[in-house]
Amino acid sequence: MQKGLVIANKENEFMQLKEYIDSVKESDGILMQTLQKAQNIFGYLPIEVQKFISEETGIPLAEIYGVVSFYTQFSVTPKGKHKIGVCLGTACYVKGAQLVIDKLVKELSIKVGDTTEDNLFTLEATRCLGCCGLAPVMMIDDEVYGKVDPKHIPEIIDKYRG
Amino acid sequence: MDKVNVTINGIQVSVPKDYTVLMAAREAGIDIPTLCYLKDINEIAACRVCVVEVDIKGVPMRNLPASCVLQVQEGMNVRTNTPKVRNAVRMNVELILANHNRECLTCIRNGTCELQKLCDELGIKDIEYVGEKREAKIDNLSHSIVRDSSKCILCGRCVSTCRDVQGIGVLDFTNRGFTTEVSPAFDYSMKDVNCVYCGQCIQACPVGALHERTYIDDVWDAIDDPDKFVVVQTAPAVRASLGEEFGLPVGTSVTGKMVAALKRLGFDRVFDTNFSADLTIIEEGNELLDRVVNGGKLPMITSCSPGWIRYCEMYYPDFLENLSTCKSPQQMFGAIVKSYYAEKEGIDPKKIVSVSVMPCTSKKTEANRPEMEVDGLRDVDYSLTTRELGDMIKQARIQFTQLPDEEPDKVMGEYTGAGVIFGATGGVMEAALRTVADILTEEDLQEIEYQAVRGIEGVKEASVVLPINGKDTEIKVAIAHGTKNASNVLEAVRKGEKDYHFIEVMACPGGCVHGGGQSHVSSKARLSVNPKVNRANALYEEDRSLPLRKSHKNPEIIKLYEDYLKKPNGHLSHKLLHTHYNKKESYKLDQQEEFDKLIKELK
Asked: Which residues of A touch B (CB under 8 A)?
């Protein structure tokens, strides 16, 4: 299975991105929002997508790459359909977040930062998610899971396996 | 402009209210150290070497603000020489040094490094901080520019220059924190990206993180090889800057000493690119006349500047037909030396090594373009910068400032004032107008100084009325220097807002006199001297001093046509002196074809 982006298969996605860029082109400071949009569409920001944004906006590729490589939110490698983020902030860590990560690593058979073979999950360790009262906290996409008990992990993951 | 009163180290000054504290201090005669600061280009408070202690009407400001971005306010009291300031500045510089490759003795910028000078001025004798160093990456794959991340201090001067002055944006800050690096995207080599090799980044760099790829050793090898016949040409702008390598004021004309030095270095013949600048004018002037009279592609655009050519090939491929097909003077020179001159002097052209000294880093890449050869002989074998020639002269221990003035060798050392002014923005246009006007009016015109095309305004326009096909016609011309200005002119032409016959473009702001290969002028020195103006003045002065000031009056050029080329733009001219251009891709993708198709379909 090819993980990289194949331009010929993604014409509709590029079209969608172009429509977005055309709608914001006239305003200033459009790079961040365009990159967020592109990452939503493609799941990640490979050179093909960044070069496309550069051509359509006139922003130099080095500047675009500079922003992408600065923010951990952006990725130049493909991500899974679901993003699992485990908070490793102080409160969560004290409350056993490492055990949550260990369980996920075992359950998904991947390392932190990697994506499963079937492209379904990407596992990430995050900074504080801002709800320390619920520690240890884990997020899957936009869903927040508080007071996570490692033994419930398989059950939670199964929900996303559909 | 409203003025405000500020006190700096007890001295009261009244300055315009949009001044920064740094500028106000200058007015008060107080020197604040800087490092990342490049006036009007990079004022970003990154290095924090210019910090000061400030109170406003008795209320102290928190922390130490950076004076390069701090605007003056009424009643501001600034102190630049307190223990707090001295300690902070020294610590900031020591922190920069902790992650800097301090191989100063063998560094290309030894002696011209602004960081080195700053350390000396601040009295830094010991670097307290010992820690990890960033992994060094050296990109020396392009023919022109070497990037060495181990020297980079992340000041951003190159980033601002390339993005804001040149409008290109090859380099930017990538990654973050400790691994931050100034580089092209995706770690591409500068060989494969949108770089035109103008070298303005090198001029901006305070340290040795960006420099030219040097060919000094190759040239020494050629000179030392008794089987080689080594000829050298020097571009017009070199003579206006070379003296700076030996401590002479910016813009001192050193033509005679330069020739004397080249002879002492051991070159077999010392010629001048001014000769082929005159030749370029004959070819290009006639090409322009042909296009105007016979309805060819207009506006015609000059092709002397390889940075500009590369820019056009990457950013404006729809204008490639507008480019003059003339090779640049550097390349024309090489082609003539290995054909006409070799034949005339009975030298085997295969034994000739053709060396050029240029104010330019892009010339190195131009010399290496595959199409720049005739019958398998490269036009130019090695292209050096003004700085590299300075280095060779120093290596040979020649006392440059004490040299007598000498004349270049005969035939290809003969030149007119028109060739000399090629090095300044507007100079090619003026030289062309001198010749074209004479041809069209069939007179020897005496009014030959076209003031409207001179000066350092970004885009200049002029028009002259000349008889074409028996009818007085207004010839409209434009001059742009710096690729950003060139882009502005081309956009206007593309939109139909402007309509010119002839456009001169030089990739560097100020033209070749301010090229990427010229002597370094520090950020501080630039506050009191403008190298673009001073060096251009040196060229205009030499032009005025010469008996012949029109290219078509150069007796050796006349002879070259009589004996060899026969006529401008003739068969032999096309073989030797003209070239072609191709659209160039930067950041080429594995799926480039699919990508181009996609862009086209979505248009």
From this structure: 6-8, 11, 14-15, 18, 47-48, 50-52, 55, 59-66, 69-70, 76
